[in-house]
Amino acid sequence: ACIGGIFVVITLIICVTNYELIRTAFGERSVVDINNWRLAHLAKACKRLNNGEHTNLQPAFYLHSKNHSLLYCLVFKAGTSSWFYNFNSWAGYSEYEIMHIDNLFLARKFYPKENRVTLMQSMEHSFSFIIVRHPFDRLISAFEDRLVSRKNAYYSRVSQAIYHRYHPGGNGYISFRDFVQYIIDDVEYRNSTMGLDIHWCPVNNLCTPCLARYDFIMKLETYEQDMAVLIKAARLQGKVKLVKVNHARKESLETLMHKYFSQITQKQMDMLYSIYKIDFELFGYSAESYFQIPKALT
């Protein structure tokens, strides 16, 4: 009986501490409960972290569709391509324009940036949401899509510049270790994370979530389940096209984690985590599995 009682207690503890991992296995009601947990967790973390060390709401990356009473903060490399597609489709742009012209440029022509006061008012009268992603998974995605693929001329030049910074006179391709060191050096030089590229800048800087008001926090890890509930809650039935603009990965996340994070040293890992630590805490993510990957000795 004692053993049985201990087992029950341990099970309850595991369920509570891993609530986010249970996710949406039990249907829509669970998604709503998890969203409430995410919002409450964000509020508590913001209070503990002095509002993410921000004093003003950052309006640069919010899109407001007045016709749909919808407000969305762009977290690049966390489902933005799909939502750009929907926002720009609502704006009347053609499929060709959406696929061949810079999406943020198109969106800003129809959805002008609101100032802080107007944005706060919009949050009170619109359905406001954000999509987040595990910070290091997002970093891997940014590295592969922006710097390795070389499908964008600007980021091809950035990739080459980073490579030559750490391999002067060399002739090769950027490594993940180069990328990590570049981020570390950039933050140290500026004494801030604010100047980082939008594709790997912390969410805390892009959306200043501690100073925003959200109705829904989506996670890329539970995207389909969260999306179904968001569409219903925001009354977007029949208005959202579930498109996958970016191609699926050829390798699993676990493979990529070991492939890239085994290239960096423990010191680099510690410094990298410190840069994204607030994002981890705000949205309830853990870096434990990344820390467990054996690191390079030098």
Which properties best describe this structure?
alpha/beta; 298 residues; 2 domains; globular; single chain; 15 helices; 4-stranded mixed beta sheet
Q: In words, what does this structure look like?
A:
The chain is 55% helix and 6% strand. The protein has 298 residues and is an alpha/beta fold. It folds into 2 domains: 25-135 and 200-234, no CATH class; 137-195 and 252-292, no CATH class. Strands 1-2-3-4 form a 4-stranded mixed sheet. A hairpin with a 4-residue loop joins strand 1 (62-65) and strand 2. Helix 4 packs parallel to helix 6 (103-110) and helix 10 packs across helix 14.
Task: Give the strand tally.
Answer: 4
Largest sheet: 4 strands, mixed
- Percentage beta strand: 5-15%
Relative helix content: 55-70%
> How many discrete domains?
2
Helix count equals 15
Structural class of the secondary structure composition? alpha/beta
SSE sequence, one letter per element: HHHEEHHHHEHHHHEHHHH
The end-to-end span amounts to: 53 Å
Q: What does the overall shape look like?
A: globular
Low-confidence stretches: 6-17, 22-26
Any idea what the radius of gyration is?
20 Å
Give the integer mean of the pLDDT values. Answer: 91
- Spatial arrangement of strands, main beta sheet: 1-2-3-4
Keywords: Carbohydrate metabolism, Glycoprotein, Golgi apparatus, Membrane, Signal-anchor, Transferase, Transmembrane, Transmembrane helix
Subcellular location: Golgi apparatus membrane
Protein name: Carbohydrate sulfotransferase
EC number: 2.8.2.-
